[in-house]
Design brief:
The protein is of the alpha+beta class and about 190 residues long. It has 4 helices and 9 strands, in the order E-H-E-H-E-E-E-H-E-H-E-E-E. The protein has one domain: 3-Layer(aba) Sandwich (Aminopeptidase). The strands form 2 sheets. Strands 1-3-4-5-6-9-7 form a 7-stranded mixed β-sheet, with helices on both faces. Helix 1 crosses helix 2. The model has no long low-confidence stretch (mean pLDDT about 90).
């Protein structure tokens, strides 16, 4: 499957249900290589949380909708194939990349690389100046060496900062002891 015609658009509140469905499928089911079902039980997020993120003026949430094949007007089926969020922190010339998901049936085909690259390019262009490097950050679960390796291949490194996995109704319950969120950082030119 070729994703050379990657079509990302900014999400709206009307996308919240489909975003939640994609995130919960990607991270809380037992399919795809990015799933966390052995580490965390319950849901990944809620519609209320997504709507709150979408309303944040410092956040840009992008979705890759499935398009109707015969359509010449980019008509959508209602299903999302991927999503990614970029939250700007202008005071530190940084952007947090989060809520990055690719439909498990499409993982391993290069779509995730393209979506991540598009988000990084957007962040760098939005924040970049001639003299400063843009700091891109994200968090991964501590027991995910495969995911850490994926991001390291894309220029991210562990920063040394971490925090306990948040125990609240929006993100699920840890199934393993001492589950942590590790910060990864990439300096973009």
């Amino acid at each position: 499957m070729s994703h050379s015609d990657l079509f990302l658009r900014q999400a709206t509140a009307e996308d919240a249900d489909a975003i939640v469905e994609l995130l919960n499928l990607t991270f809380r089911s037992d399919v795809g290589w990015t799933n966390e079902s052995s580490l965390v039980a319950g849901i990944r997020t809620t519609v209320a949380e997504i709507k709150s993120i979408l309303a944040d003026p410092n956040n840009y949430f992008f979705v890759y909708p499935e398009l109707i094949a015969e359509s010449t007007e980019n008509e959508e089926t209602g299903k999302l194939l991927a999503c990614i969020s970029v939250t700007f922190k202008p005071e530190s010339n940084s952007a947090y990349i989060g809520l990055f998901a690719v439909d498990p049936s499409l993982q391993g085909q290069g779509m995730g690389n393209q979506v991540l690259q598009a988000a990084e390019t957007f962040a760098t262009r939005h924040l970049g100046t001639d003299s400063d490097k843009v700091r891109l950050t994200m968090s991964i679960l501590s027991q995910r060496p495969d995911l850490q390796a994926y991001y390291e291949r894309r220029g991210y490194q562990l920063s040394g900062n971490s925090q306990p996995f948040p125990v609240d109704s929006n993100n699920g319950e840890p199934k393993v002891a001492d589950l942590r969120l590790l910060e990864m950082v990439k300096l973009a030119e």
